[in-house]
Amino acid sequence: MAQLWGGRFTKETDQLVYNFNASISFDQKFFAQDIRGSKAHVTMLNATGILTDEEKDVIIKGLDSIAEDVANGSLAITAEYEDIHSFVEANLIDRIGEAGKKLHTGRSRNDQVALDMRLYCRDELVETKELLKQLLTTIHNLMKEHIHTFMPGFTHLQKAQPVTLAHHFGAYMEMFKRDYSRLTDIYKRMNVCPLGSGALAGTTYPLDRNMTAQLMEFDAPSLNSMDGVSDRDYVLEMLSAFATIMMHLSRFSEEIIIWNSNEYQFIELDDAYSTGSSIMPQKKNPDIAELVRGKTGRVYGALTSLLTTMKGIPLAYNKDMQEDKELTFDAIDTVKGCLALFNGMIATMTVNKDAMKASARNGFTNATDAADYLVNHGVAFRDAHGIVGQLVLYCIEKDIALDDMTLEEYKAISPVFEEDIYEAISMETCVNKRNTIGAPGPDAMEQVIAINDDYLNSLQ
Ligand code: ARG
Question: Which of 56, 142, 295, 411 could form a cystine bridge with 46, CB 3.0-4.6 A?
């Protein structure tokens, strides 16, 4: 047991208490951030005259050597230390002696952990944005490729109207664009520096909080020291945005699973992104999509769990907050992993254009356009709706599509129909004439793709 406290205690900590209380098994994840924060703190302590140049140099060298040894494996982070902060400080004192004992001047573990967590989340947010950008680029390329790939659009999972695959993917493009912009917004609010908040009430040392904020590329120091140590809103916001990303990925996964099924065969997943069955030799399963869908639950769980943890905590720091870490780390790793795998999965899948087109052709997806044809020839829409309903019933009985009916058959139901009905209800017409912005027609899609080109180029 290596603890940073103990002077006022007359007994050793019970081992079970120690284990229950310790966080090193998980907070070692922000070792790099802890070192970075300590270096900034010491640099500022020196600039404000609290530490001498020599003390600063020896502490920074010591911190660098600890970082190096952990990286090269010669120094292990072990359970002997209560948390990562104790590990760094104890090792520093071991290595450089007296000067090491000055590192914690004007600092508390409360503002230290608040800083480390913020630095960690900030780094991970940037990485998540990069993965989202890669996914957006993949979807964008698929959209460009499939402007003329017809498929049924669905409502209630019933065939509704013909669309294109570019249009369908375009819906996900918009969802992930919103996710990306949510992360950008969250970053702005997250980017304030709590270091210098002390335990809760600041310190009496003349700390230069602007300087530490600047050294670590924060926009500003936090403006209330109690809030500085006890704010976890930025984690909640991030988890909420992550839960939404997972919800989007899960919906998309559900479609991939359906499209990849034997019944649909709209797509085929690449062998490298599929798995087999131990008993059924013919199987090629969409496990990755299923796992992404399944892992959505744990990210929702992290959000719900932290909201619940935070709801009863009086100001300022309380140990409950240590519970923010494991589930947040897990959610971050889950979202990043799912984004990367989902991206690879859709980038490598094969699209079966013929199956999609045949499916769009067979489900009366052009019925609305047949009604519109009648309206354009003077029939009131409600009457047109009824007439086309009769046509559909007739086709169902004969097991044919609207396109397969003869003109005599059409005329038997309504004399308004003429030879040009076939062109009016062809799938090409149905899609290609829908060209208001946001619709699946090729002109509208080209406009949206051009907007998305600019959008992707604007992402740094
Ligand atoms: N491991 C603690 C946490 O994650 C660090 C802060 C400890 N502060 C304290 N007063 N015990 O929250």
Answer: 56
